[in-house]
Design goal:
The protein is mostly beta strands and 381 residues long. The protein has a single domain, classed as Beta-galactosidase, Chain A, domain 5 (Distorted Sandwich), CATH 2.70.98.10. 4% of the residues lie in helices and 38% in strands. It has a nine-stranded antiparallel sheet, covered by helices on one side. Strand 23 and strand 24 form a beta hairpin. It is globular and about 60 Å long.
Length: 381
Amino acid sequence: MKTRKLFAGEVSRTVLILFFLISCDSQPAKNDNEKTAPGISRADWGEIAGKQVYIYTLTNQKGVQVKISNYGGTITRWLVPDSRGNKTSIVLGFDSLSDYLAHSPYFGATIGRYGNRIADGRFRIGDTLYTLAANNGKNHLHGGIKGFDKAIWEASPIQDSVPSVTLKYFSRDGEEGYPGNLKVTVSFSLADDNTLSIEYLAETDKTTPINLTNHSYFNLTGNVDNSILDQILLINADHYTPVDSSLIPTGEIKSVFGTPFDFSKPVRIGSRISQVKGGYDHNFVLNGKEGSLRAAAVLLDSLSGRKLEVFTTEPGVQFYTGNFLNGSIKTSEGKPIGKHSAICLETQHFPDSPNEPGFPSTLLRPGEKYRSLTKYKISLQ
């Protein structure tokens, strides 16, 4: 996708990040020999409007498992051992389809056609004004009332060098107000080094904005009783995009230095959150060249000994601290999911880009191919 350059002289923090990653080098889990057979399995998970819903389980050589549903392209579980060898899921999710249908705030879902917010649910392409659903106050959020997170995708499991599942969806012209027939493919692959790769591909027959991401909520402790405020975060970004009271970017690209948004060095998430009204729910402008796979973030948890590394080709990442979780939703084990129970690191183009000519363009035109790659790697410190 063609994009506009944000600014000259981008400052790279590669040396710092490499030092940080090396200093947190992983160790084998104590129960590494207790392996589950690698490969792919499929289980029935219910039915919606006559369409079958499945759960696909990807298992690597170490017995680490990722569970993905063709409902919403949703990651429901990611089971990995902690420093004591105990396996728990590091993402929030449910065991039953009915829970997702009733009250999931995008847990683990594939988001589209446009991830994040579009101001007033409107944008122009040329002289044409397009109107979308206002499903987040006056704004449009995560693709609308029935975004890709609520679609039933066509799934193709693949056992090649690593277990993978490829999901396909055809978004028709006018769906949720967006122009163009859009063909979308999302592929999930689980490598033996515990890296989950998510690759997004798309083509359109009419110019349209597109911004695909995954909305997994991470709690590296594997227990929602534990707040994420004590976890340590590094974001490879010298700038962020400030927002107004409805979380729409103001159009500024502002330095993080000297602000509560400075995660350019490892920082405890809760150390300055009280200085951010409502908590973190902001887009960070990643250092480095857009389109090249580079480090985006590192998250550390001392309780479990787990480390999460995020790599992406996207220009930004949305850091969200679960501010709107209030305990009304419960896990499948009956535990309330409260405020700051998890964080999201959504790799993306910037919110409201269709209305901000100074942001990297999100327009996909006929004859062009949209491609985006994000990798989440889990290990032990």
